[in-house]
Inverse folding.
């Protein structure tokens, strides 16, 4: 039977048993800090706090990040809140920050809500989380632009001499609501894993690399659902990426209207394997069909992708 | 060799000397290499083709 927990290190404990976090690379060491962030908690404070007592959590992720150390497996757990956009108006506010993660090996894990712990950007049009560090895991976060429109995660080379590249990024089980502009953007990131995420109707790009930026190498992108993503669900100059078992629904494609590159666009990449994805389009080259919704790199292998009228082993032309 | 040169070396399959030369010339990321003119690149590593991948 197909097991979505691909890449799991058998026997390695996850974070509180949260699905998708049990990777060998992120197994906590004896010295790991587990820090709690819950802005609405009556005893929450930042200055002088360790954040390691759940009854005295940090107010902000920024304060928790300041206590993280490279390659120690430090974990930031974000508690539940009442910040769902259709909820009580944020009386129990979630995270309202834009943060930069420079620590290697840190995990930011949402511990609340079915969609994850709610997080909206503090600055309009900015990313909630910018990742420069290596081996960073982000899991179970609901990124919402409902209060302040912005984007989700930016993982990038930071331009410094130290060579921080945001390689080996893992994003599991995150939700990007329809007011989020770009879900996950990457720049010259190698070997990222993006799994189990939901990109809602209205997101402009689900997984994106600016064509002027460095290509994405060795990504594994699987088990994500892209619902009417506006411009392109996956638009990267992928090189040797494995893109499988994702689900794409585009209403225009389903109805036979033009939907150019609305699903997967790998132009200028090379040697990607794209297989077992389900797409709401017809086979062939018509408006909104397989060839219209997708673009391959020229050297990819596209195997057994499922369209409305059957599977195809052809590359989209 | 620093991390930037190491990554460029592997990405473009360059020699170590070429990768270091590009970084030293301020071309330490594919983004900058894409923006650079052919002459700029040729002046640093001799051949443009080393960092200009075949396009579709």
């Amino acid at each position: 039977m197909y097991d979505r927990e691909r890449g799991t290190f058998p026997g390695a404990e996850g974070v509180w048993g949260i699905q998708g976090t049990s990777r060998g690379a992120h197994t906590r060491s004896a010295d790991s800090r587990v820090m709690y962030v819950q802005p609405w908690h009556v005893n929450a404070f930042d200055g002088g706090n360790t954040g390691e007592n759940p009854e005295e959590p940090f107010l902000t992720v920024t304060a928790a990040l300041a206590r993280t150390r490279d390659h120690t497996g430090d974990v930031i757990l974000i508690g539940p809140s009442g910040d769902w956009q259709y909820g009580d108006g944020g009386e129990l506010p979630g995270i309202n920050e834009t943060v930069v993660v420079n620590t290697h090996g840190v995990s930011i894990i949402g511990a609340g809500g079915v969609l994850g712990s709610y997080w909206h950007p503090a600055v309009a049009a900015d990313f909630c989380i910018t990742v420069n560090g290596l081996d960073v895991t982000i899991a179970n976060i609901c990124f919402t632009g409902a209060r302040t429109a912005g984007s989700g995660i930016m993982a990038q080379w930071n331009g410094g001499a130290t060579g921080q590249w945001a390689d080996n990024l893992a994003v599991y089980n995150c939700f990007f609501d329809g007011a989020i502009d770009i879900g996950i953007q990457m720049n010259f990131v190698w070997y990222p894993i993006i799994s189990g995420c939901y990109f809602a109707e209205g997101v402009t790009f689900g997984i994106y690399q600016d064509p002027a930026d460095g290509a994405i190498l060795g990504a594994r992108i699987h088990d994500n659902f892209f619902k009417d993503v506006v411009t392109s669900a996956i638009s990267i100059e992928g090189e040797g990426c494995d893109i499988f078992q994702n689900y794409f629904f585009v209403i225009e494609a389903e109805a036979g209207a033009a939907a150019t590159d609305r699903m997967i666009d790998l132009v200028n990449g090379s040697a990607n394997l794209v297989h077992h994805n389900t797409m709401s389009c017809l086979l062939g080259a018509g408006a909104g069909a397989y060839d219209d919704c997708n673009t391959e790199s020229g050297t990819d292998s596209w195997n057994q992708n499922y369209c409305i009228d059957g599977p195809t082993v052809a590359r989209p032309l | 060799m620093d991390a930037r040169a190491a990554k460029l070396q592997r990405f473009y399959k360059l020699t170590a000397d070429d990768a270091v030369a590009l970084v030293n010339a301020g071309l330490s990321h594919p983004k900058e290499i894409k923006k650079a003119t052919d002459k700029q690149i040729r002046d640093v590593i001799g051949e443009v083709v080393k960092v200009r991948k075949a396009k579709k």
